[in-house]
């Protein structure tokens, strides 16, 4: 399928351009990162690279172990050389919406610990403004006991609507790797994302937002025509 090929293109470009020997690599979550881990493992084998990987979720941890890559953590490596991760949408300022896979909190922590944070995505994530293509809203991780007041406060302050993310293969709400709930906030129009991100984080009960502002250094987009577009 075209989008899968595009994901692979972006993932391979990022791994080939940003991973060197003796590095600590943050491994993101989602489906695009699977191609990046495949390429990482291939390069480790072929080039005998000495790298360690820090996961951003149970899923990322499984990927690292399944590919026999060296698993590490932020206790051992609080500073990473590079973090590679996907995104649900990227705007022209490299502001991201992340959290479609529910892993935004550990992803943002790891991205924040990396000298370089690089995003990999297919052409469907490449937008001018947030909300143009991604219609599921901004994911927000919340402490379970607070999800109702938090969702009310967000709507009161910024409009739109916020809904509790319900699980598909489990009765009840999605529970994150950190044992929290997720609200998906469908905003009505583009905002000052720096201001909104800060304001939402200040609401008691909010753990993290899926707005990654001024964090990504570069995004690789795999395109329909088989090319790769780079946005800095
Ligand atoms: O949930 C997440 O933050 C993922 O990284 C998501 O943003 C990208 O997932 P995808 O590569 O499956 O589109």
Automatic annotation (TrEMBL):
Recorded name of the encoding gene: rpia
Organism taxonomic ancestry: Eukaryota, Metazoa, Chordata, Craniata, Vertebrata
GO molecular function: ribose-5-phosphate isomerase activity
GO cellular component, one term: cytosol
Pathways involved: Carbohydrate degradation; pentose phosphate pathway; D-ribose 5-phosphate from D-ribulose 5-phosphate (non-oxidative stage): step 1/1
Any single GO BP term: pentose-phosphate shunt, non-oxidative branch
UniProt keyword annotations, A-Z: Isomerase, Phosphoprotein
Spans through the membrane: none
Signal peptide: none
EC number, UniProt record: 5.3.1.6
Family assignment from sequence similarity: Belongs to the ribose 5-phosphate isomerase family.
Enzyme class: isomerase
Protein name as catalogued: Ribose-5-phosphate isomerase
Organism expressing this protein natively: Austrofundulus limnaeus (Annual killifish)
């Amino acid at each position: 399928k075209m989008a899968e090929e595009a994901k692979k293109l972006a993932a391979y470009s990022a791994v080939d351009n940003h991973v060197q020997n003796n590095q600590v690599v943050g491994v993101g979550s989602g489906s695009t990162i699977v191609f990046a881990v495949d390429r990482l493992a291939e390069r480790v084998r072929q080039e005998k690279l000495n790298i360690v990987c820090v996961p951003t979720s149970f899923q990322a941890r499984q990927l690292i172990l399944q590919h026999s890559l060296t698993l590490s953590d932020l206790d051992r490596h609080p500073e990473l050389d590079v973090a590679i991760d996907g995104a649900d949408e990227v705007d022209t300022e490299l502001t991201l919406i992340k959290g479609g896979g529910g892993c935004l909190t550990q992803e943002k922590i790891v991205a924040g610990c990396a000298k370089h944070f690089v995003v990999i995505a297919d052409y469907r994530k490449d937008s001018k403004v947030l909300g143009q293509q991604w219609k599921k809203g901004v994911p927000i991780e919340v402490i379970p006991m607070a999800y109702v007041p938090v969702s009310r406060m967000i709507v009161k302050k910024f409009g739109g609507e916020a809904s509790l993310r319900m699980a598909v293969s489990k009765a009840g709400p999605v529970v994150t790797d950190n044992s929290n709930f997720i609200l998906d906030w469908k905003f009505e129009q583009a905002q000052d994302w720096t201001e909104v991100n800060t304001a939402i984080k200040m609401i008691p009960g909010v753990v993290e937002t899926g707005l990654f502002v001024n964090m990504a250094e570069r995004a690789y987009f795999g395109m329909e025509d088989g090319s790769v577009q780079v946005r800095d």
